Amino acid sequence: MIANVSGNGIAVGITGIGAYAPERVLTNADLERMVDTSDEWIVTRTGIRERHIAEPEQAASDLALPAAREALEEAGVAARDLDLLVVATATPDMLFPATAAVLADELGAKRAAAYDLLAGCTGFVYALSQAYGAIATGLSGKALVVGTETLSKITNWQDRSTCILFGDGAGAAVVEPVSEGGILGFELGADGSGGSDLCIPAGGSRTPVTADALDQELQFIKMRGQEVFRFATRVMVTSAEELLAECGAGVDDVDLYVPHQANKRIIDHAVKNLGLASERVFMNIDRYGNTSSASIPLCLAEARDQGLLDDGTRVLMSAVGAGLTWGSAYMTWTNGRASR
Ligand code: COA
């Protein structure tokens, strides 16, 4: 789907951002001691130097909680006033109940509809579109969108082709009506024919977790890296181009490009092909690795901390992930301009 929503008569924006990464840091040097790899290989092929890893007792909701509290505080929104809480995650606390329901309880968001959304690394952009839609139609007043992942728990730490890529973290955004600006459009899609290129085979109804499935290590991420790489380089460009065109904008109308942090080479390819100036690109993959649905809100929080998100800053976010899914959102940043 693609939509220019700027003429919808209601402006909806992000009024608060929060992020959290677990304290423990796993460096490439640590990985050299675990699998047959090297810092040089990982940095050259991915741009990643280190990643954060959750403690055994930390689940997705535990990472989400501080990120959510920070976002609510920045927005000046009380959890009890939320109508909607969407948690994008591929690593929920449990298959059910939804991590969003767990988080809503911990926050005290007693009036909020709360559900999880599974769109892999595109989850945050998908969830942002859900919050936009609910607010624009009057279904919801204030929403909290969260991306939270404990990918370390579904990673096979003996598989060098995947374990070097992923990290843990969470990010959150308060979404609500703003006086002007805000979200301008979305482009979202999915191609399930590539689903097996990036999946966890066991744990669902197709292959329940059995001793046999565990013997075959089917509870871990399986990835055809080159296929995913090819797909990602293509859709990161087409999604952004199509959305900008739909919104009557060009690359010069992007002040800050916030791409999903999967691989520096994928980002570099997109930046080159889109014709974006490198100083307008936000990257922190070197310190976090791929945190899936947490990656874009983690970037937004750091961009805010670095003073890169002013009133009026035009932000383009693009992501690609399991599904295979992709998505872009284009918006004008609106610092502290909730219309209440
Ligand atoms: N350390 C050292 N060597 C490694 C390695 C590692 N961690 N992982 C793989 N290799 C080896 C391979 O075995 C292969 O060796 P060979 O040539 O002797 O067979 C060689 O490096 C090249 O492997 P290849 O898979 O072609 O590397 P690549 O350049 O495609 O990079 C990825 C691999 C995973 C980094 C890359 O394919 C990728 O980023 N794909 C997209 C993944 C992704 O973003 N997934 C999430 C999407 S949201």
Overview of this structure, please?
The protein is of the alpha+beta class and 340 residues long. It has eleven helices and 14 strands. The strands form four sheets. It has a five-stranded mixed sheet, with helices on both faces. A five-stranded mixed sheet has the order 2-8-7-5-6, with helices on both faces. β13 and β14 form a beta hairpin. The longest helix has 22 residues. The model has no long low-confidence stretch (mean pLDDT 97). Bound molecules: coenzyme A. The site of coenzyme A has 19 residues, from α2, α6, α8 and β13.
Distinct compounds present: coenzyme A
Number of strands: 14
Pairing-aware structural class of the strands and helices? alpha+beta
Order of helices and strands: EEEHHEHEHEHEHEEEHEHEHHHEE
Kindly state the percentage of residues in helix: 25-40%
Distance between the termini: 30 Å
Quick recap:
Helices cover 32% and strands 23% of the residues. With 340 residues, it is an alpha+beta fold.
List the helices and strands and how they pair.
Elements: E1 2-4, E2 12-20, E3 25-27, H1 28-32, H2 39-46, E4 50-52, H3 60-75, E5 84-88, H4 99-107, E6 113-117, H5 123-136, E7 143-150, H6 160-163, E8 168-177, E9 182-190, E10 198-199, H7 211-215, E11 222-223, H8 225-246, E12 256-259, H9 264-274, H10 285-288, H11 295-305, E13 314-321, E14 325-332
Parallel strand pairs: 5-6, 5-7, 12-13
Antiparallel strand pairs: 1-9, 2-8, 3-4, 7-8, 9-14, 10-11, 13-14
Helix pairs in contact: 3-4, 8-9
